[in-house]
Structure formats: structure tokens, C-alpha cells
Amino acid sequence: MFNRTSLQVAAALASISLLAGCGLVGGDDAEGKSKITVGTTSAPTTLDPAAAWDNSWELYRNVFQTLLSFPTGSTTPQPDAADCTFTDSVSQVYRCELREGVTFSSGAPLDARAVKHSIDRIRTIDAQGGPAGLLGSLDRVETKGDRTVVFHLRKSDATFPFILATPAMSIVDPAKYPADKLREDGGVTGSGPYVMDSYAEGDRAELAANPTYKGFAQIKNDAVTIRYFQESEAMVQALRDKQIDATYRGLTSEEVVELQESRPENESLQVVESTGADIRYLVFNAKDPSVSKLAVRQAVAQVLDRPALVSKVYQGTAEPLYSMVPKGIAGHTTAFLDTYGKPDPGKAAELLSDAGITEPVELTFWYTTDRYGSGTAAEFKELKRQLEASKLFKVTLQGKPWKEFQGGYQKGSYPVFGRGWFPDFPDPDNFIAPFVGKDNALSTPYVRPEITDDLLPRTRKVSDRSAVTKEFEEAQEILVKDVRLLPLWQGKLYIAASEEIAGGERALDPQTVMQMWELQRKTSW
Predict the structure, then answer these.
(1) For site-directed labelling of 110, which of 42, 67, 297, 468 has its Cα 20 to 30 A away?
(2) Where is this chain primarily localised (predicted)?
(3) Does domain 276-492 have CATH number 3.40.50.1000?
(4) What is d(CA 360, CA 388) in angstroms, rounded to the nearest whole number?
(5) How far is it, in rounded angstroms, from Cα 355 to Cα 349?
(6) 329, 340, 337: which is closest to 490 by C-alpha?
(7) pLDDT tens sequence across 203-246
């Protein structure tokens, strides 16, 4: 997504325990349903879903419901507040039947009118930084009685169920959330697993299990306190001091490695690891003379050593990425590895020589200093080292704070720049479509009609996403051929928790949003 600071987890989860023989499954008696305190560096920017396309989703998932959701282990949308299906053969009419008896915490019914109100207000308000852009394919919302909602799309869009499953599409009480402006009283009225008892901006959110909740979640604790930290160092210290029970966002690679080490201060802690789907990549502005020649971009791709980058900078807390579609997402390939193989400066020199380039190519790499974590500067230093070690490039590095950096690439000022992508939903479309086309998310026009006018429209007609793998593989081959985008690595996700906490391995959904209801205190060993 354009400005989210959250990650995404794959369906298959691997756990690492720092306690020999320590189980991750808790009991279900009264003791196991006590209060949990969780720390994060990812605080909400707003409490109104109509205004947020960012880390606010973390809170929304726990206090609101969506029509569809991603239960643990599922990478396709499943029923939450409704059971939905396409009713036509080209994925343009989507019908949802609401659960009976669902109510908001205010006591008002969650009915078809509330769903239409919730979706329509997103587009009406069209808040800056809000999620209205996700609804580009939607024409209108129709209600039929109290429990039926029909979404009519302007064009085929088989990814629409994934969009409805994002926390951006949280269903709100019409009596509490105005149709044409954002809610301003600081309250939250939802129908999710938890009710928000209190909220102190930048400090904490107090959540209590919702006694009237009707949905897929099985709530395994009585209440959750979410504490917001400015710095991860303070959060880790709070975990060690038993002021919090778990962390779910913000650990640095250095902290993860340190927590995994066998040392006395870690004996009462555990770390759960899972594969993420946040990616980092380089963008080449083909209008800039320094990278306008395909051979230059190919030579960069031929020289870069991703395993060395991940090892030196991220200490194994990330994985090399050879496709814009990451591991864990349907349609993932290793297209760049298949084409270029291992790093080979000799082959890169041949590519440049064949294009008539005999002198070292001077390049300027731009990156943001304050958006993707403390490792970004070190990452670009390593990229520079690798390229210059080949004797084929001379690289200048330029770093700017996010706002300045964003303004620069949006004006087309940077020949090569680094970006990260935190996907909205676990579908390969969301890793290709945003980056291709005249008006793409990178403000660097990349016109490829084969992708935008043929392959993507074809896939969007098919609701069975497993049936369009071939089209996404073809799209990735085109990306490799052009080298306008160069994938570098995908992240891993980590939850650090007290030995007393179970459920960490189930707590992240495929959008990497924390499902607080999965956490519980262990009652036996």
C-alpha cells in the first residue's frame, strides 16, 4: 500500500522458542483467560477507518468487523460478518449475506444499511491518506432488505473480496459515524472481538472482550492493553521488566538476534518467527540518462549479491527476493535468479561492453532515512560496496527524510531509488498492479500494455485465484526483461513474548495484523 507501516505474514508459520521444551499451547481454563499487555511501536494515526490506510489497521482488526477476514492459516478471504460470493461469471457483481443478530457495541444492529453507510462514507469523505483508493473498481452499493448487500463493480475485479477483508473496510455504526465527515469525539463503536474501554493517544488502548461478539474469532483472553512505544529499545526493556507480555511490531534486526541468543536475560523469553511479505526493491527511472539503457540496469541486476546483503545488514532477519511477488504469495517465482544466476561481474561487464559502455557507470542511489528502519542506510552502503567492487560502477548515495524523499521521487528527480512495499492483501495482483502503468504508485511511468491491458484484466475476471498463476508468472517475466524494478529482499516477522504467553504463532493474520484474541497465558507445561 502507499503509506502503510505494517507487514504481512504467509500462511505457514515457523516458531523459534528460546526455552528448551517450552510449549506454545496454553490451557483454556479461567486462568488462561486473563489480561494480556502487548507493546508495539506502531500507534494508530486515527480512530476512524475512513481516514486510515496505515498502521491504524492493527487496532481496527480487533475492535471492528469486516464482511470477510483472514483467520489464521487462510490466505483467501473467509466469512466474518457475512458470507459473500460473486454471482456472475466475470467478477463484477458481489453479493453478501450478513450474519443474523450481529450488533455494534452501542446495541444498534449491524445490518445492510450499516454496511452501505460504512463503504459509501469512505468514498464520500475521501480523506487524504485514507483508503478510498482501494475502492477504485466499485460502482455502487445496493441493499436488499436488512441482511443482503450487493456490490456492483465498474469492471471485473476478483481481488474485491480481498479488499473487503482489509481493516480499511471496517463496518461502523451509522449513528456514531457521520456520512460526510470523520468522527471527532475520539470514540470507537464497532462489533469486533473487543470493545475499546479507553484510549490515550500515543500511550495505550484498553480493550475488553466483547460479550456480544458474533464472528469467526475465538477469544482466548479477557482483556488486552496495547502500549505504544516511541522506541523499540524501551519496548524490549519493558518486556524484560515484565511490564508487557509480548511485542508485535518494531523490533530491529539487532534486537531480534540479541533476543535469540542464549543468555541469562533471555531465559524467560521466547521469539516466534514467521515469513513476512513486506518487500524492498530498487526503482529505475528510465527517463534519466544514467539508467536509460537496458544494459546498465541489467548489469546492476547481474552484480548485486542479495544473500550477502541480507547476511551483512539484516543478520538473517530477512530473505533474498528474486521476484516482486514474495515467497508465501500465490504466483511467487524466482525469475531474477533464473535469469541472472549468481552474482557475476564478468557477465555484467559483457552486458555493458555489448552496449558500447566501456567506462564505469556513474549512478546516484537515493533512499529515505526515516521510514523503513535503521538498517536502510547500511543497506545502501552495502549496495554501493558491491557495485563498486565490480569496477563497473561509481555510486553516490543520497538520503533524505521521508517527506523530502517522497517529494523528490514524485517529481521524477531520482535516477535510482529504494522503496518498500507493505501489501494491502495477500494476492499477487497487489505486488504488480501498483507499480505498472502511466500513473503508478512510484510516480515513475512504466507503460507495459501487455500487463496493464491484457494480463491483469484477465486475472481479475477469475475469482479462483489459483487458476491465474500462469498470467502472473508471465507478468513477472516481463518485469525481469525490463529491469525497471529490482527486488532485493523480503522481511521476516517476529513476536517476542514472555514464557507465560501462548498463541504467538497464530496471532498474525496474512495481512500481518495482530489478532490479539489468539494470545493467552499458559496454564500447564
Answers:
(1) 42
(2) other
(3) no
(4) 9
(5) 10
(6) 329
(7) 999 999 999 999 999 999 999 999 999 889 999 999 999 999 99
